[in-house]
Write a structure and sequence with these properties.
Layout lengths: L1 H13 L4 H8 L3 H8 L7 H11 L3 H5 L10 H12 L2 H18 L5 H7 L1
Helix pairs in contact: 2-3
Length: about 120
């Protein structure tokens, strides 16, 4: 339950919303919602479903079953299906290529770069 509470808090903070704003959107009392985020209260399934819709994430993400907050579309599901049908060594090669491409697009910042940002 702590993970669910933590995910709800992080989603709210990412959207820069107050607990009162989210409580209103989910049709619960602000103190009730605060209890959800602190894991003091159990969260009804219908409230979790509304929260997922409100934030545009999956219930799997809120429950901690995945770290990917959004559902895959049809094309992404097809890519995933093909990836898992490959041999492990081929999956590893794809992982290496993705990492390389990602690092080209998002280079690691050096200490010198971080000082420039300040």
């Amino acid at each position: 339950m702590q993970l669910i509470a933590s995910r709800l808090r992080k989603l709210r903070e990412k959207e820069d919303k107050t607990q009162e704003q989210v409580a209103e959107a989910l049709h619960v009392h602000p103190s009730t919602y605060k209890g959800y985020e602190t894991a003091y209260r159990r969260i009804p399934v219908d409230v979790l479903r509304e929260a997922a819709e409100y934030y545009g994430v999956t219930l799997d993400y809120i429950f901690g079953l995945t770290n990917i907050p959004y559902a895959l579309d049809k094309r992404e599901n097809e890519i995933a299906r093909k990836y898992y049908a490959l041999k492990k060594e081929d999956q590893f090669r794809i992982q290496e290529r993705i990492t390389t491409l990602y690092e080209i697009e998002h280079p690691l910042k050096t200490l010198k770069d971080k000082k420039k940002e300040k």
